[in-house]
Amino acid sequence: MRSRAFQGLPAFFWTEVLVQANELTAMATSMVIQGVVLVFVWILDPSLLGIAFCGALIFSMFTMGQRLLNEAAYIRIDHKANDLYLASPLSPEGYFLGMAGGILLVYIAPVIVMGILAEIVVRFTLAEVGLLLAVCFSVWISSASIGYTFSTFFRDNRAIWAYASLFFTTFGVVFPVFYPLTSFPASLQPIALLLPPSAAASLVQAAIGAIPVVPSRVVFGAVALAAETLALFGFAVYWARRTVREG
Amino acid sequence: MSAEPLRSRDLRKVYETRGAPATTALGGVSLEVHRGERVALLGRNGAGKTTFLKIASTLLRPTSGTIEIFGHDADRNPDLARPLIAVVPQEGKPFFHLSPYEQVYTYLRARGFPRDLAKARTREALEKMGLTDIQDRLAITLSGGQRQRTMVATVIATEAPLLFLDEPTIGMDPFARRAVWDALRELTRRGSTMLLTTHYLDEAEALSDRLYIIDRGRVLVQGTAEELKASVGGTLKVTLAKGAGRRELFESFGECVVDGGSCTVIVPPERLGELMAIAVREHLTATVGPVTLEEAFLRFVGRSINEDDT
Question: What are residue A6's phi and psi, to 5 degrees?
Answer without folding.
Answer: 65, 15
